[in-house]
Design brief:
This protein is an alpha/beta fold. The chain has two domains: about 40 residues; about 270 residues, 4-Layer Sandwich (Purple Acid Phosphatase, chain A, domain 2), CATH 3.60.21.10. About 30% of the residues lie in helices and about 20% in strands. It has nine helices and twelve strands. Helix 1 packs across helix 9 and helix 2 runs parallel beside helix 3. It is globular, with a radius of gyration of 23 Å. The relative contact order is 0.16.
Length: about 375
């Protein structure tokens, strides 16, 4: 009698498992937020609002957090790197204080400004300049926010059926992007182990160029906006059809996307520089939709942020086709604002594998269920 009852429970379990794998991802809708490039900088000596609105950065992030907290069904938030001005310990402290005000779970990836910068020689006598903290300090400070242990990269399932990955793309001593061999191997293994789950990859540096200047080192070394072994990593994305979206920051431009094979790459605006936006996504088994919103702030901050991007503070950020003058300013603003993609949606092509495609014998499932 006991065995018959156990067998019946096992069969029912198998039917439920088969139904879930066959008909859905395990979720109907997921809502999540993405922010990037906060460059948190407390108003200490020598800090100014320039291209990066550093003095205003704490208030801007807190404003974005307040907006996220108004969304009752928000499942999680991801911050795509350059969390601090230059990895200063006091900025790490205020960053965590503000991020901990989020009501939804949050996860972070590291950016090139979250590594201790290479110290430059002082031009006058005195004590050595302040040093930033290491990546490891961030990792241990944000345990449970993606990081579990000492590695600089991570993965987790925030919702059953949805897998997210946080990559580390940073190279100490530079603002370039690269993914080291150990991380490439881990990525391959992680995707293999989670091949039945819709997957979103979060990163700081991108894998595609967003401007013609990003394709080479000829213009201000802009190729460093792109991971230098992007083709190697893209080949892994192509290997696993569950990788549907790759989301990053670093470029400080309004949200836009590109499709490479079956993967959509999406870049996000900065919190700390014009156009200062955060993004809210809704993911269903059929589509990913979004709205990118301006961070609420004062008219003065918005005015100065816009002036700073086309003025002297933003000079370095001008592309080769953004010459100084009214025409170049207009073209530069259009490139950074990307108003046409502040709202949008993309299809989800990946479907979870059906029961018969999983390669797991029915008796193995049944045996687990009965025991």
């Amino acid at each position: 009698m006991k065995r018959s009852k156990g067998l019946l429970i096992g069969l029912l379990t198998v039917l439920v498992v088969v139904f879930v794998w066959t008909t859905s991802y395990g979720f109907e809708a997921v809502k999540f937020g993405v922010i990037s490039d906060m460059h948190m900088g407390m108003a200490v000596e020598g800090i100014k609002d320039e291209f990066k609105m550093t003095v205003s950065s704490v208030d801007l992030l807190r404003s974005a957090v307040n907006e996220f907290n108004k969304i009752p069904d928000l499942d999680f938030v991801v911050a795509c790197g350059d969390l601090t001005l230059d990895a200063e310990p006091w900025n790490l402290e205020i960053l965590k204080t503000v991020m901990d005000e989020l009501r939804a779970p949050y996860y972070i990836v590291l950016g090139n400004h979250d590594l201790s910068p290479v110290p430059k020689p002082r031009k006058f006598p005195g004590p050595p300049p302040a040093r930033g903290v290491t990546r490891s300090t961030f990792v241990w400070a944000f345990q449970g926010h993606g990081f579990e242990g000492p590695e600089f990269w991570w993965s987790l399932d925030p919702i059953p059926g949805l897998h997210i990955i946080g990559l580390d793309t940073n190279v100490p001593g530079t603002w370039a992007g690269h993914i080291v061999g150990a991380e490439v191997k881990w990525l391959d293994q992680d995707l293999y182990s989670n091949r039945d789950k819709l997957t979103i990859v979060f990163t700081h540096h991108g894998f595609v160029a967003w401007h013609k200047d990003d394709k080479s080192m000829k213009w201000k070394e802009y190729a460093q906006f792109v991971v230098d072994n992007a083709a190697e990593v893209q080949a892994i994305f192509d290997k696993y059809p569950q990788v549907s979206f790759v989301m990053g920051g670093h470029r400080h431009i309004g949200l836009r996307y590109k499709k490479v094979n079956d993967v959509y790459h999406i870049v996000h605006p900065a919190i700390c520089s014009y156009p200062m936006r955060y993004t809210v996504y809704t993911l269903t088994p059929k589509e990913l939709s979004w709205v990118s919103r301006d961070v609420p702030s004062t008219k003065d901050i918005w005015k100065r942020a816009k002036e700073n991007i086309i003025g002297k503070p933003g000079e370095w950020w001008r592309g080769s086709d953004h010459p100084e003058g009214p025409a170049g300013d207009k073209k530069m603003l259009k490139f950074f604002e990307a108003k046409e993609t502040m709202k949008g949606k993309l299809p989800v092509s990946f479907k979870p594998k059906r029961y018969g495609e999983l390669g797991i014998p029915s008796e193995e499932l049944l045996g687990v269920a009965v025991r």
